[in-house]
Design goal:
Blueprint (H helix, E strand, L loop, with lengths): L8 E2 L8 E12 L4 E11 L10 E4 L4 E7 L2 E2 L5 E3 L3 E4 L5 E10 L9 E5 L2 E5 L19 E10 L5 E4 L2 E7 L4 E12 L6 E4 L2 E8 L5 E8 L8 H18 L7 E7 L6 E2 L4 E5 L12 H16 L8 E2 L5 H19 L2 H20 L11 E2 L8 H18 L1 H15 L3 E2 L1 H12 L8 H4 L5 E9 L4 E9 L14 E8 L21 E5 L3 E6 L7 E4 L8 E3 L4 H10 L3 H24 L8 H12 L5 H8 L4 H7 L5 H18 L1 H17 L6 H17 L5 H13 L3 H12 L4 H15 L3 H12 L6 H8 L10 H14 L1 H4 L5 H16 L1 H7 L1 H4 L6 H15 L6 H11 L1
Parallel strand pairs: 2-12, 18-19, 19-21, 22-24, 25-31
Antiparallel strand pairs: 1-23, 2-3, 3-9, 4-8, 5-6, 5-9, 7-8, 10-11, 11-16, 12-15, 13-16, 14-15, 17-18, 20-21, 25-26, 26-29, 27-28, 27-30
Helix pairs in contact: 1-2, 2-3, 3-4, 3-5, 4-5, 4-10, 4-13, 5-6, 6-7, 9-10, 9-11, 10-14, 12-16, 15-16, 16-18, 17-18, 18-20, 19-20, 20-22, 24-25, 24-27, 25-28, 27-28
The structure holds tryptophan and zinc ion (ZN).
């Protein structure tokens, strides 16, 4: 908790560390009611930081100092200064050794940062600044050291003792305890340190690297989950191979371990050689995990593995550079997933997510650049902007340079900076040096926040046979940034003739045509591109594959969008045309609803979807994506002022119309998919995943008919599905239906069957929390008392409270403010337990400016109430103060 106002830390104040740590020797004595940590730090003056011997200031929080030596001489109380965050002392030589012993309390650590207990096991989470809760240290990423770690614990309770690197020694003691020593030969910052002690089982495999070394692979888990690890192991081996093939990156230690833990603040953590995962991102079995969960496991395993190079071998100089490792690694894992599954579907999912959530963040009070200028609490900056927008920035570099030059640039980056802690500028420099391109203006993507708007006009001159596209870019003001300079915006595009054929593209001044799809680099506030020898008035296909994270505006008519849906050669843009058509139609319904008029749906949306459903050549996953209407959250993001009730009514009205008009087609498609499911054994492969996604969206429409025949197929699927993807989808549809008896029955059966599986129960909570039927808040409040719920487990908090506040707009935004009051109460409770989780759950309340006057007042009042509620963590304080500013 905060004893004074948290300080703002600025990038411009960065200074190299005064001292360096060459070696770190740690010994942990783990006991049930405390842990002793002995640290020996072999240190020296940093020659790059100036002359003389300034005081040594070590970070340390919540540590009970028991003993302190400088070069083997014990220090007395007068020889050092101790505050609640630092230990300072005066070295007398340029090289010295510090020995310290501290007592800490992992058994009562509910913040899940530093060393803590998850169930019966000890584990750590040190990123970003958790290591200072383990021992006194220079806890900053530009201080890199080799680590030797010894753990000792009761052998029966903690038979497995793990840390980074390779095991080098172990032994037993007579009192029932045992110990193990691990050594990590690679220099690393403290945030990559990890240890695990517990009663764990593992599965083992091995991987032969490109250069012929055999790496042992182990995934550890509590014994009851041993049967759910194969998918993660397969994903790991695919990741290792992909990184060799696509980036030329080989693994470097002899052993790679993953440990699954139940209590974890984020998805997973890339600790060197010892990744620690939220169990939700490792465990996968067809009976208990959906297709989406399987894909998430594959992506997160890859993400953490890829960090071994993009993050560990080359790390960040300071936390302002966080996107250096996160944006790059998200880009890498997205490309991996695209290669393993459907590229177009992966892109659609990522773009839908980015536009709904990152665009909202970039338009809210916490908006910040991909490389922020300042922060109060770094944990608050593990954001969609750093991760998702950061990945888009990397994708744009890839698009502008081309795959080959990008690879040269990444090779140069890894070679030049191996073993170093560097900046985003260093990364861009390597890309420039390898490609010969100047990225000076491009770097504004790192420094300017906000989502650019790109308006496009066109003009066809039939006489001259020229076609001109004029782009106008602008970017709204964001906190601390009134004015923006123009970005470099890569616009991938093509031109279609009236038959949907692609026209060859040649810009004025060019000697020859350059294919039918190309990238225009928009660099000015207003800029025109003229194509020559254009035989007919074309229809432009713009921002193909979503080539830049901008809001594109071109005045497409609905017929033109239907045309693009059918003919665009770019699969992403076919989907995008359908989304834009749906947005236009839904926005018209919202306006009708607001004016109190009867709702009238533009039949072209139905006809477009009829064509999609009837097209047997289309990938089933694409059919499913195209049948999915834009989410309420996305429609809210697009509105100046979000009318949650009108949006919900409009969207449900459209869904019911689609269900009614296309019932027969949906029914036929559903039956065929379900029949295939019944007759083929489950596999989490792309073709089956596509089929199940189509089947499940079809089922959700069929149930809107509220007929007995629809209910029968839904119950059949729920009862007889041999996999969680179908079972959970049927449950979700039942929960949102008016069939109260069947719903209650299904929920009870499901809970009875899966009561001992925490991750499945999370799904059970989430499905109910997201149910938009009236009474949502009361249902959630009742579930808070369910035996399987606890505020101490972040997955449970996200499943119930998070799903309610983020996915259940009509209930959360109840006009009496009860939803807001509920969330504020939970944030106050969480603040005392787990500040990182508290501050994340606060996000929906920070978006108060999006809503009507009544709701704004209610939301602000809850933010004020939290602010006045007492001792606040720095995490929660930062978000509150910025949201109320
Ligand atoms: N570096 C982790 C990743 O792969 C992020 C992370 C895991 C994290 N646990 C954390 C960040 C706890 C802050 C706090 O993206
Ligand atoms: Zn990461």
């Amino acid at each position: 908790m905060r004893s004074e106002q948290p300080q703002t830390i600025h990038l411009k104040d960065y200074r190299a560390p005064d001292y360096l740590i060459d070696e770190t020797h740690l010994t942990f004595e783990l006991f049930e009611d405390h842990t002793l940590v002995h640290a020996q730090l072999v240190m020296r003056r940093n020659p790059a930081a100036g002359d003389g011997l300034p005081p040594l200031v070590l970070d340390g929080q919540q540590l009970e100092l028991l003993d302190l030596h400088l070069d083997d001489v014990p220090l007395a109380a007068g020889d050092y200064q101790l505050t609640d965050s630092h230990l300072s002392l005066q070295p007398t030589q340029a090289r010295f050794v510090i020995d310290s012993t501290v007592r800490i309390h992992p058994e009562s650590n509910t913040a899940l940062e530093g060393l803590y207990k998850s169930g019966g096991m000890f584990c750590t989470q040190c990123e970003a600044e958790g290591f200072r809760k383990i021992t006194f240290y220079l806890d900053r990423p530009d201080v890199m050291s080799v680590f030797t770690t010894t753990l000792s614990a009761d052998k029966q309770a903690y038979p497995i003792l793990l840390s980074n690197g390779n095991p080098i020694a172990s032994g037993e003691e007579e009192d029932g305890r045992h110990w193990a020593t691990w050594q990590d030969p690679f220099k690393k910052p403290a945030y990559l340190f990890a240890l695990v002690a517990g009663d764990l089982w593992c599965i083992e495999d091995s991987f032969r690297t490109l250069s012929g070394r055999d790496v042992a692979l182990r995934i550890y888990v509590e014994p009851e989950n041993i049967g759910k690890l194969q998918h993660a192991m397969d994903s790991l081996k695919k990741s290792m191979k992909w990184d060799e093939e696509v980036y030329g990156r080989e693994y470097d230690l002899d052993i790679f371990m993953i440990v699954a833990v139940n209590d974890f603040n984020m998805g997973a953590m890339e600790n060197k050689g010892l990744n620690i995962f939220n169990s939700s991102c490792v465990l996968a079995h067809p009976d208990t995990a959906t297709d989406a969960a399987h894909q998430r496991v594959e992506a997160v395993v890859a993400h953490e593995y890829f960090h071994n190079w993009s993050g560990n071998r080359v790390t960040c100089r300071d936390w302002f550079q966080l996107s250096l490792k996160e944006g790059f690694t998200v880009f890498r894992d997205a490309e991996f997933s695209a290669d393993m599954n459907s590229r177009t579907v992966k892109r659609i999912e990522d773009v839908a997510f980015l536009r709904t959530h990152q665009f909202a963040e970039d338009a809210g009070p916490m908006a910040h650049p991909v490389r922020p200028d300042s922060y109060m609490e770094i944990s608050n900056f593990y954001t969609l902007t750093i991760y998702e927008k950061g990945a888009e920035v990397l994708r744009m570099i890839h698009t502008l340079l081309g795959a080959e030059a990008f690879r040269k640039g990444s090779d140069l980056y890894f070679e030049r900076h191996d073993g170093q802690a560097v900046t985003c500028d260093d990364f861009v420099q390597a890309m420039e040096d390898a490609s010969g391109q100047d990225l000076t203006q491009f770097k504004r993507w790192y420094t300017q926040s906000g989502t650019p708007r790109l308006a496009v006009e066109d003009c066809y001159d039939a006489h001259a046979k020229t076609y001109t596209l004029t782009f106008r870019q602008s970017c709204p003001a964001t906190p601390g940034q009134e004015r923006k300079e123009p970005f470099v915006i890569p616009v991938a595009m093509g031109l279609l003739d009236s038959h949907g054929r692609e026209l060859p593209l040649r810009l004025a001044g060019e000697a020859e045509t350059a294919g039918t799809s190309r990238v225009l680099a928009v660099t000015e506030a207003v800029q025109s591109f003229t194509f020559v020898e254009v035989p007919v008035q074309p229809l432009p296909s713009l921002l193909r594959g979503f080539s830049a994270p901008v809001k594109l505006h071109y005045p497409y008519g609905r017929d033109q969008l239907m045309f693009l849906m059918q003919h665009d050669s770019d699969g992403f843009n076919r989907w995008e045309a359908g989304q834009q058509l749906a947005v236009q139609v839904l926005q018209a319904l919202v306006e009708q609803q607001q004016r109190g008029e009867p709702l009238h749906l533009d039949g072209r949306l139905i006809e477009a979807l009829r064509a999609v459903l009837a097209d047997e050549t289309l990938d089933q996953a694409m059919v499913a994506e195209m049948l999915s209407l834009p989410a309420e959250a996305y429609l809210a993001e697009l509105s100046e002022m979000a009318d949650v009730d009108a949006i919900h009514i409009a969207r449900e009205f459209a869904r019911e119309a689609i269900a009614r008009e296309l019932f027969d087609l949906l029914w036929a498609r559903y039956q065929r998919c379900r029949e295939a499911s019944r007759s083929t054994p489950y596999a989490a492969d792309a073709a089956q995943i596509a089929r199940r996604s189509l089947q499940n969206i079809a089922l959700s429409y069929l149930m809107l008919a509220r007929s007995e025949e629809a209910l029968d197929v839904c119950v059949e699927q729920f009862e007889h599905a041999d996999n969680m993807t179908e079972r959970l989808a049927a449950l979700a549809v039942l929960v949102n239906s008016p069939f109260d008896a069947d719903k209650a029955n299904a929920l009870a059966k499901f809970a009875e069957h899966f009561k001992d599986d925490a991750l499945v129960m999370d799904q059970w909570f989430a499905v109910q929390a997201a149910c938009s039927l009236p009474g949502g808040l009361e249902r959630v409040q009742a579930l808070m008392h369910h035996g399987a719920f606890t505020l101490k487990n972040p997955n449970k908090v996200r499943a119930l409270i998070g799903a309610f506040a983020n996915q259940n707009h009509v209930n959360f935004h109840r006009i009496d403010g009860a939803g807001y009051r509920f969330l504020a109460d939970q944030v106050i409770a969480l603040n005392a337990l787990n500040p990182q989780i508290a501050s994340r759950q606060l996000t929906p309340l920070t978006r108060w400016r999006k809503f009507d006057q009544t709701r704004q007042v209610l939301m602000r009042a809850e933010l004020e109430r939290i602010l006045a509620s007492g001792e606040l963590s720095g995490d929660v304080y930062e978000v509150l103060s910025k949201s109320l500013a």
